[in-house]
Every structure is written in structure tokens, then in C-alpha cells.
Amino acid sequence: QVQLVESGGGLVQPGGSLRLSCAASANIFSINGIGWYRQAPGKQRELVATITSAGNTYYADSVKGRFTISRDNAKKTVYLQMNSLKPEDTAVYYCHAYRGITNYWGQGTQVTVSS
To answer: Which of 55-59, 72-76, 93-97 has the lowest mean pLDDT?
Structure first.
């Protein structure tokens, strides 16, 4: 099994920045894909960004140019750098990974963008 632990959430003002971290219990190269989803109150969980074992990345249109996903294989950690944050970015952010037919989820970390 792969355990995922998120950290780095918090309160930030609009236009500010925040970096989320997701620490995995398995080597990232052994995971087919890892990334971030988010879910705001009253909304469906949506994909934010992913990175595959090959290094390919995907971003939701709403965050392109503002968010950057990266990884450190030695530290078994994936990061989500969030810049120019907007109130609509407020949500619980979940780290997600898949390997083969199995999906794994972290516990979530709250990100609140507000004045």
C-alpha cells in the first residue's frame, strides 16, 4: 500500500502563495501517477494537477500559469506550488496517487484564500 500525507495548507490572502507537500511511503518512480485534487463546499472533487512517473504533467485550466507541480524522488515527495491565489481556490486539497489498478488518497489539507 501507498500512504500519502499532505501538509502546507493554511490561510492566505488573495494574491498570495502557498506550497503543499505530499509525502509518499513508496518510491515515486514506482507510482504511475501522483497529484492533487480539491473539493470546495457544495462542489464536486476536481483534478488540479498530476505528474506521471515519466514526468508528464497536467493542469486544470483554472490553475494553469499559477500552480506548478513538481517532485523530489529522493524525498518521496510531491509539491504543489500555488501562486496568485484566488478566493475560488479555497478547498480541501487531497493528494492522490495510482499504481496499477489501485488508487490512494491522503487525508486532505485545508487551503483558505480570504482577506
So the answer is: 72-76
Report whether 94 contacts 36 (CB < 8 A).
Answer: yes
Q: Measure the CA–CA gap between 24 and 47, rounded to whole angstroms.
A: 19
Q: Can you name the residues that pair with 71 across neighbouring β-strands? A: 78
Residues 42-55: tens digit of each pLDDT: 999 999 999 998 88
Residues 64 and 48: their CA atoms lie apart, in Å, by 9
Closest residue by Cα to residue 48 from 38, 33, 56, 34: 38
Output the nine-digit C-alpha cell for 99: 499504481
Determine the Cα angle at 39 with ends 107 and 42, to 5°. 130
Q: Per-residue confidence at 101, pLDDT binned at 50, 70, 90?
A: confident
Handedness of CA 66, 17, 5, 29 (dihedral sign): positive
CA distance 75 to 80: 15
Nearest to 24 by CA among 111, 82, 95: 95
